Amino acid sequence: MNAFDPRLTPARPDLASARLRGQIEAARFVEGEPQRVAWPTVPVRATASPEASLVTETLFGETVTVFETTEEGWAWGQLDADGYVGWLPAEALAPLRAAATHRVAALRTPVFPGPGIKAPPLLLLSLNSRLTVLDIHGRFARTPAGFVFAGHLAPLGEHAGDFVEVAAGFLGAPYLWGGRSSLGLDCSGLVQAALTACGVACPRDSDMQEAALGTALEPDPAAFRRGDLLFWPGHVGIVEDRGTLLHATAHAMAVVREPMARALERIAAASAPLRTVRRLTG
User: Fold this and answer.
1) Is the pTM of this model over 0.85?
2) How far apart are CA 234 and CA 247, in angstroms?
3) pLDDT in tens, 188-227
4) CA-to-CA distance for 84 and 149, rounded, in angstroms?
5) Are 231 and 274 in contact (CB under 8 A)?
6) Which of 3, 24, 40, 104 counts the highest number of beta carbons within 10 A?
7) Do residues 66 and 9 lie in contact, with contact meaning Cβ atoms separated by under 8 Å?
8) Residue 281's pLDDT is what?
9) 232 — phi, psi (to 5°)?
């Protein structure tokens, strides 16, 4: 990837991150302020407008380095998890306090006002959201946000073992361009969510993933094996088994299993033939 890919470079003609001083030209350089995400999901947009394209999302408990907050209530910053740059609602962010200790390990989980299931939930958090566990009350973990069923959490250093199984947990979730949560996600968001749950650092967009993940193989369907990543221009899918592609697709507007031969033929007819196969190792 280009070191100055605009998706990953916190720089505009009028403002840039201080770490880029001497590398680019900008009218002003600032250090940036770390903040945490306080909403279950927060849209990150291309421009400071609620009507602007959704380029990605950030999840509860993730952190953002904010370089500017406007009077209109927009924050321009960079996501610390994957480096993506964009505009967020400033009211969705809060000061950093205690460091996160756990992540949500279930597809989604409710946050309750007390250690029980009958009170109306305060929040509904998606897989990979981050929380600070203060102590345990029976089956529930107490966090600054409320009480979460402890069985839905995992310490930050504890990971899932099979990213294909994690991705399959999203079957039926709606397709959402730019989405990263169980309430809606796109093809690369599915790959990123599943790999993140397994402790594998993963870029955000499919072209970034194609360049950074695994080892390139010849695109031979006879050699596919579980966990291989298949790339087309603008799309990525996961080999669940040699005969099945698992992916989030606008064709079905959902995360689906699709017969491999049919998927290869359909996507080639609609856009382009399979371009790259990448196999993860370790």
Assistant:
1) yes
2) 13
3) 999 999 999 999 999 999 999 999 999 999 999 999 999 9
4) 31
5) yes
6) 104
7) no
8) 84
9) -120, 165
